[in-house]
Amino acid sequence: MTTEEPAIHAEHLHKRYGDKIAVDDVSLRIDPGEVFGILGTNGAGKTTTVEMIAGLRKPDGGRVTLLGLDPRHDRGKVRQVLGVQLQQAYLHGALTVAELMGLYRSFYPDPRSSGELLELVGLEEKRGVRFEKLSGGQQQRLSIALALAGRPRVLILDELTTGLDPRARRQMWATIEHLRDEGVTIVLVSHAMEEVERLCDRVALLDAGRVLAVEPPAGLVALAGAQNLDDAFVALTGKQLEEAE
Question: Which domains are assigned to the chain?
Answer without folding.
Answer: 8-89+153-244 (3.40.50.300)
